[in-house]
Amino acid sequence: MSRPLDGKVAVVTGASRGIGLAAAAALRDQGAQVVVTSRSEERAKEAAAELGEGVVGFGAHATDEDAARACVDFVIGTYGRLDILVNNAGTNPAYGPVIDQDHGRFIKTMDVNLWAPILWTSLAVKAWMGEHGGSVVNTASIGGYSVAADFGIYHVSKAALIHLTKQLALELAPKVRVNAIAPGVVRTKLAEALWQEHEAKVAEATPLGRIGEPEDIGEAIAFLAGGAGARWITGETLIVDGGQLLGPGAV
Ligand SMILES: NC(=O)c1ccc[n+]([C@@H]2O[C@H](COP(=O)([O-])OP(=O)(O)OC[C@H]3O[C@@H](n4cnc5c(N)ncnc54)[C@H](OP(=O)(O)O)[C@@H]3O)[C@@H](O)[C@H]2O)c1
User: Fold this and answer.
1) Is this model's pTM higher than 0.85 or not?
2) Would you say residue 248 lies in a domain?
3) Sheet holding 55-59, edge to edge
4) How far is the CA of 90 from the centre of ligand 1 (A)?
5) What is the pLDDT of residue 251?
6) Within a domain: residue 250?
7) Probe ligand 1: pick from 188, 196, 211, 240, max atoms within 8 Å of CB?
8) Of 98, 145, 203, 228, which residue is the least packed, with the fewest Cβ within 10 Å?
9) Looking at the domain assignment, is residue 43 inside a domain?
10) Ligand 1 environment, Cβ below 6 A
11) Would the pLDDT of 250 be above 90?
12) Does residue 251 lie within any of the structural domains?
């Protein structure tokens, strides 16, 4: 039986665990050959081994231009194409009020969350997608649509990523579709502070009654990346949050 992504090749940045790992699994299950990245070559390879056939690991810090170029060169050299790029690596070192942040934490957040998607998209488009077509999915956040104490810099970076998604979609059409996913609170290491100590409370405040699992987001990423129903979607950010942005509901 044919699968929607048979013959396609995908790169998922920041995929040694969490949402990236789940996205890699979903893309692989739909037929794609997948390359997963991590800051550590070892963790990338471990993640690939965990997913098994059709997935390989590559060590590349998302903001390291030489490493990103080496990864894209590896993909083109090995598989001869690069159809799907998931810019998933993200970070949040700048916890606390915005006015208490320093330049270093600001730069690190913006570098990983905003510059890396530009860098990897540029490399993928110039190496393959610009001529042959392709699809990019950026991992934003519902934080890009809201304000909350202590997450200001991170939310600003994700709001900018949502805007960047539209900008790139316009610049790269018609060959390349560019979309984003905006997850709510998902059971991952990055978001532990948001759910670990009070999961029942978060679930109660979520209209669909539970926090997100990485697979909830991974499968939506695979849909945007290449699912048949997404072929005329570009510049869009898909919110996948169990209704968290709607609020706890009218009672
Ligand atoms: N979880 C949530 O509730 C939630 C909600 C909204 C948005 N998001 C977004 O979802 C994305 C994935 O986060 P997650 O929740 O799945 O977090 P996670 O479980 O902590 O995973 C983050 C992944 O990114 C990798 N990574 C981190 N910094 C990197 C860098 N500079 N270069 C390359 N890889 C890097 C990590 O691998 P190594 O440590 O091995 O390098 C890991 O595989 C992020 O963009 C995050 O902002 C998460």
Assistant:
1) yes
2) no
3) 55-59, 33-38, 9-12, 84-87, 134-139, 176-183, 237-240
4) 5
5) 47
6) no
7) 188
8) 228
9) yes
10) 13-20, 37-40, 43, 61-63, 88-91, 112, 139, 141, 183, 185-186, 188-191
11) no
12) no
